Amino acid sequence: MRNRRVRTVFSFVGILATLVLLWEGYKAMGAATGGTWPFTDVELPIRTNERSMPHVWDIVSTLFSEAQRGRDELLVTVLLKAALFTFRSALIGFTVGSLVGFGLGVLFVRSGLAERGLMPYVVASQTVPVLAIAPILVVWSGRLDLPIWVPVGAISAYLAFYPVAISTLRGLRSPEATSSELMRSYAATPNQVLFKLQIPAAMPYLFPALKVAATASIIGAIVGELPAGIREGLGRAILSFASSFSSAPEKLFASVLVASLLGIVFVALVTLVERLTIPAGNRLDPNELAMAGQGGAA
Amino acid sequence: MNTLELTGITMVFNQGGANEVTALDGIDLSVAPGEFISLIGPSGCGKSTLLRLVGDLLSPTSGTAQVNSKTPHQARLDRDYGMVFQSATLLEWRRIAENVELPLEVMGVAKAQREATAREMLELVQLEKFSDHYPWQLSGGMQQRVAIARALSFKPSILLMDEPFGALDEMTRERMQMELLRIWEETNTTIVFVTHSIPEAVFLSTRVVVMSPRPGQISDVIDIDLPQPRVFETREDTRFFELLTKVRESLRKVEGEEPGA
């Protein structure tokens, strides 16, 4: 167990180091050849100068320099505050979206009519670009005098509910036919079947979907902040650093790093809840399986 | 009063459709309380379908079924059936004792009573030491014993078993057969048992019902007059072999084909 954790840390650090080496290696190659593939005249697809690909250490050091001239706040502080702000919107979106998605899954498993009728709209909802939906929701909720976090949370929820709905439905349908026959032979009510059989069986399917929903809710929150004119979040930071990309590219890369970090932290939180929710016996570990001998025979 | 009374049961799947199948045709069968009945026959003879009709998991196209002088539907609502399938279908997120308690939970039995019953049932199948284990920690035979304990936990008057030992190796299977007979004697339950195995049917049953396929019909009912209780030596009894031969020949008449063992 301990051994495996050490290996996990090593592989994470190793991959990070490899990525940095690839980035810097590519830059070094471009510098040596004058921007072409070695021994050819074929130009490299991405320019290797400082304006396209700043050095990794420049990106890191810009995080720890002042965000704007004349202000003593570090960029990393500004970005982390923005990330925290965006996280709050994303958390609202994630919570609402997951509840709606779970509710739809339960509705669909209960009613084939609801599934046939609503599923096409659920699928269609994800093909409409969120960029188009976002300003509409912002304008509507402005008309209704709703606080600004409502449309941002709604946009975030709009992206988050879909994977949860699909996986919940899949998980609720996962018990074997004989399990359902058993419940029927006990004359169980539909609610008893739902709470004692279907929902527990759906849990292992639910958590991977919640991880997808966690990252989707962040994207939704970032995109939602833009038309809402929110200045405090990552959306605004990314937008303004994107517009000054040619003069200070490392700042945009720095904000991308912080946004990714936010996603990783959110997914890690979901994983933690998963570990606490699903009993150890239901999380099959290869070592434990071997110990159980012929346990997998049935 | 018979526990089970089937009259003219016919079951047609996809009636009127292109792939219409008559699974059962004119089944008449009476089972007295405390009998151990085996249904045997080649694949496709409708024996599992018949079991599901008795258990109200399917409804017959025509004919009537009476269980304890009630409709199968009412009998199911009264929890007259315990069911055991070929796979144990234990809920993997529940401990062994919690699996045995499941039907009692559904039936609204109080917690203390549930726990006491689960303990008693696990003692009956000699798995009391494993009550806190999870299903995957048990072997296939042990899981099937838990499934039997679960089916008996609410003291149903009929046990419906669909090839319960079909997935077990021969030695485990013979042990399980002895255990089932012991439980049957202790609990006085009526058992309807679907199997592919001739020795299993003869060893366990008071009567063997031989079925023929396409359409599923009862072709023979053979009384098993071996002395009770059955013991290990019963399998070496001359009468046991005579009855094996009798069932085997009856099955051969059915289709000229050996049932899959």
Description:
The complex is a heterodimer of chains A (298) and B (261). By secondary structure, chain A is mainly alpha-helical. Chain A has two domains: 51 residues; 228 residues, Orthogonal Bundle (MetI-like fold). Chain A is 74% helix and 0% strand. Chain A is globular and about 75 Å long. The relative contact order of chain A is 0.11. Chain B is α/β, with parallel strands linked by helices and 261 residues long. Helix content of chain B is 36%, strand content 23%. A six-stranded mixed sheet of chain B has the order 5-6-7-3-8-9, sandwiched between helices. In chain B, helix 6 links the parallel strand 6 and strand 7. In chain B, helix 3 packs across helix 4, helix 3 runs parallel beside helix 5 and helix 7 packs across helix 8. The radius of gyration of chain B is 18 Å and the shape is globular. The chains are: A mainly alpha (298), B alpha/beta (261). Chains A and B meet through helix 7 and helix 8 of A and strand 5, helix 3 and helix 5 of B.
